[in-house]
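Human: Cast an eye over this sequence-structure pair and say how the chain folds.
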Amino acid sequence: MTTIRDAIAALDQLAPPYLTLGSDPRGLLIGDSKAPLTGIVACLDVTHRAVEAARKVGASLIVAHHPLIYQPARTLLADEPHPGSVVLACARHGLSVACAHTNWDVAQGGINDVLAELVGLTEVKVLRVTAKESGDGIGRVGLLREPLSATDFLNKLGNVLGIAPRTLTPTRALAVQTVAVCGGAGAELLADALAAGADTLVTGDIRHHEFVAAAEQGFLLIDGGHHATENPGARELGRRLELALPGVAVTFVG
């Protein structure tokens, strides 16, 4: 019998725990590791929609990129939109919940490699090394196959991410060739991107003063959205889990 523990072991192979940044939550967060694994719902965030999808397909495990419980919770209340009511719904329906957060950001083939591939980068390297022994790290930097104007690059990015990316940097005279990417919130990697010779950084959750600082340096800082830059990597995690667990169906909720 395949159990939740088997799924967590597969998850740890794909996103090794030693890659986790700091004390970030990872692995099994809710549930019973000895319970049967009847299917998996993969998602970016554990929401009521993900819970309903798991009930509908008969899955016993939800695997998310973002932890359902990120900070210690003083209360878990039914009238709390998130995470309280979602945690209670998972418990009520006997669902286990696991996550691979920063370890999947850092892992080879994870969030940032998927984003780099979507953007069309070649000669991809780690942007900031966080695991010195293995050389793994957060963010990626690489080259476009051919230079693009900033306007054309923004249009291309909008097409692959499915949203309208934002920047405050004047784009008329800029060309894009060396691009850094960081799924989610990675504006703190601006200095790393500059040091790596990048002319552009694609990430999400960029604040106004970060846009201004980049524009003052003639650097193209682009907000592609937290969800849009990470959701493809969450889908890829589900695909990899399905390959690693023969006979276990994985349903993705985007």
